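Inverse folding, one chain.
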């Protein structure tokens, strides 16, 4: 754990109201495990609100990728507005890594990832890391969004399916009818029927769920209904979202 000053290297719009930010490590040695998060503090922000100048954000990059990648919904909060307008090369303070939401690499049990919206960030790190290491572990990503336009990194996951026979993607949209680009994939909510249909025997995998509190409540109910035991489930709740 430590505190670093990193500079903004790249900023991209990656989905509706959603941006990614890559920070340059500037040659500093820094280790983390995929699934962990950092606390980013803005330095002398031009404006602030009562919620302050720092937020916890999951690391979205794998340790093999350059720099530190985070991604967030641009909600209009003072923090997000300042971050969204930060000039390239500007410094921020980064504390961490924090958290124990990490894959057990000793286990060979299939890994099932359940992501709600921006809860995808720690899974991008875990999946990219597994692919970078040539891991043969079976991984299934359930990725729930309202529309495909809302689904950050979706194109990457579609491409990664072809990089590893062990990686399966099940993307599901709850408001597909609102999509401008159209969606011919699965629609509805991530429920017990979808888990059973995709996984068959639900008793073996290790489950990792991340997202806003409302998504987490729904997923917890679906997992219980599908017969998954509590000790099989690891959770990362993105507090601060509804
Ligand atoms: C482990 C973890 C990982 C996360 N990873 C991500 C991620 O990868 N991407 C992402 O977008 N979000 C992530 N979040 C959520 C993120 O920290 C923010 O809460 C969220 O992005 C909403 O921030 P906001 O500025 O849009 O909303 P706001 O409502 O402005 O801010 C919410 C934040 O303010 C704090 N807060 C609320 N009320 C007050 C108050 N009165 N005084 C002081 N503080 C207050 C909350 O604790 C919360 O951290 C993560 C959260 C956790 C805990």
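Residues assigned per position:
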């Amino acid at each position: 754990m430590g505190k670093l000053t990193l500079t903004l290297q790249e900023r991209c719009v990656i989905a509706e109201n959603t941006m990614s930010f890559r920070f340059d490590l500037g040659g500093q040695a820094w280790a983390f495990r995929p699934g962990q998060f950092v606390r980013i503090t803005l330095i002398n922000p031009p404006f602030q609100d009562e919620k302050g100048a720092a937020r916890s954000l999951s690391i979205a990059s794998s340790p093999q990728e350059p720099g530190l990648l985070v991604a967030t919904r641009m909600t209009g909060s003072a923090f997000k507005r300042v971050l969204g307008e930060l000039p390239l090369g500007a410094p921020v303070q980064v504390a961490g890594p924090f958290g124990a939401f990490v894959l057990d690499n000793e286990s060979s049990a299939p890994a099932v990832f359940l992501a709600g919206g921006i809860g995808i960030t720690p899974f991008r790190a875990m999946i990219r890391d597994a692919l970078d290491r040539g891991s043969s572990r079976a991984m299934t990503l359930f990725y729930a969004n309202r529309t495909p336009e809302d689904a950050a990194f979706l194109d990457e996951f579609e491409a990664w399916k072809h990089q590893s026979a062990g990686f399966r993607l099940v993307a599901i949209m709850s408001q597909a009818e609102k999509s401008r680009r159209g969606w011919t994939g699965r629609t509805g909510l991530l429920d017990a029927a979808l888990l059973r249909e995709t996984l068959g025997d639900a008793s073996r995998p290790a489950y990792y769920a991340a997202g806003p509190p409302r998504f987490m409540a729904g997923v917890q109910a679906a997992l219980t209904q599908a017969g998954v035991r509590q000790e099989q489930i690891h959770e990362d709740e993105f507090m601060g979202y509804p």
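The two ends are 29 Å apart (CA to CA). The pocket of flavin-adenine dinucleotide is lined by residues 37, 50-52, 55-58, 70-73, 75, 77, 79-80, 99, 118, 121, 236, 238-241 (CB under 6 Å).
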